[in-house]
Amino acid sequence: MYIKGAVEGAANTELGSRVFVYEVVGLRQSEKTDKADYPIRNSGSVFIRVPYSRMNQEMRRITRLGGKIVSIQPLSALEQLNGKTSTAGANSETETASSQANGKAIPVAEQQPKKNDKKGNTMTQAKAKKEAHADVPVNIYRPNAPFIGKCISNEALVEEGGIGLVQHIKFDISSGDLRYLEGQSIGIIPPGLDKNGKPEKLRLYSIASTRHGDDVDDKTVSLCVRQLEYKHPESGETVYGVCSTYLCQIKPGDDIKITGPVGKEMLLPANEDAKVIMMATGTGIAPFRAYLWRMFKDNEKAANPDYNNFKGFSWLIFGIPTTPNILYKEELEEIQQKYPENFRLTYAISREQKNAQGGRMYIQDRVAEQADELWKLIKEEKTHTYICGLRGMEDGIDAALSAAAAKEGVTWSDYQKDLKKAGRWHVETY
Fold this sequence. Notes:
Elements: E1 2-3, E2 19-25, E3 46-51, H1 55-64, E4 68-74, H2 75-78, E5 100-101, E6 104-105, H3 108-111, H4 127-132, E7 147-156, E8 166-172, E9 185-189, E10 203-206, E11 220-226, E12 229-231, E13 238-240, H5 242-249, E14 255-262, E15 275-281, H6 286-296, H7 298-302, E16 313-320, H8 329-338, E17 343-349, H9 363-369, H10 371-378, E18 383-389, H11 393-406, H12 412-421, E19 425-429
Helix pairs in contact: 9-11, 10-11
C-alpha cells in the first residue's frame, strides 16, 4: 500500500506531532476574486500548517478558495531534512467482566492504567504503546544514504476483468541491515528529477510481508502497490503517479532505493490471544496480509518461537470494487477455510453487491450490518482495531459504531478517544 505523498496526498507515518505543511498556490484574496468564474491568480506559494485532525477540512477550504495544493509534507520531515526522513508519504502518487458491567461498556480509561499525556497526543499512538515498542527499528536507512535493494519479482494482483493495476513486488534486502516489523512502512525513492529539477522525494508504502519476508528467510521485503491514475482537473489528460508507475513497471534484477523502516502506529499486539479487527480498502490490505501470515502461516509460525500459536480471533472486512480486485484472494480464503474459528473474512464489493438501501456496498455498509457484533468485540480489553486504506472511510465506520454504542448509552466519540489512549485503535489512511 502506498501512503500518499507530495501532490497526491499526505503520509500517515510515525509522526509525533501529526502536523503537516501544505504548499498552496492560487488562493483567492478578495471578494472580487472569490467569484466562481474568476481565474486562479498566479501567486507565490503559501505554506499552511495543518494538524492531522483537520486535513480534510483544510483541503476543502483550499479548494473552495480556488487554491491548488502543490505538496503536503509532514512538519517533522521538514524539520529533519538534513539526513533524516524527507517530505513525501506514500499509496497514491483506507466480553469479559472487566470490559462490561450489566451489558454496558466500561470506559477504556478505567480498564487501563491511567497516564498523563503531557504531549497532547490526539492520534492513536498512545504513550503506553510507544513505551511497549521502544525497541522497534526505525530509520535504519535515510534519504541521504538509502539502502540499494534489488527487485526479485513483480506480480499482478488484479485478475482479468478487474479495475486498475495492482502489483505485489518483492525486493532482496540480504546485502544490508534493513529490519522491520509487521505494520511498518518503507520509503521508496524513484529515479529521476521532479518538475523543479530536483531529485524525486521518497514515498512511503506499507509493508505487505512479515518481518521474515515472503520466503521466511529474513532476506526480502514486499509491497502491494496500485498505480495511481487520474484525470488532470484542468487539462483533462490522464496523469500517472511517478513512484507508483515506477514500482508497477520495475523488473526483476532492477536496483531500488529504500529508506526506513518507519511507523509504530500499526504494530500488532504481542499477545497471542488478542482479538484483531481489520478494516481495509484496496491496497490498505498490505499490513493486514502481514498480520495474517504471522498469525496463521505454518512456515511463518515455525520461525517465531515466541509467537507461533495464535489463539485469538481476527476479522478482516475488505472493501474492493469487483471480485477480480480482491487482492490476495487465494491466501485469504485458504486461511479462512483452515482456521474458521480464528479468522473471519467479510467482503464489501461495491460494484457487485448492494447495501440495505439498494446502493453500492461499501466497507461502511458492512460495518453497519455488523455494528452490534463489532461493538461487542471492541469492548473487550484484548481487542485491537485497525483501519487502513482510503481517507474518508473512517466517517462511515464511526457513524455505524456510534449507533451501536448509543444503544448502551455510550458516546462513541468519547469511547474512541479512550481506545486511542489505550493504544487499541489504529488508523493509517491516505
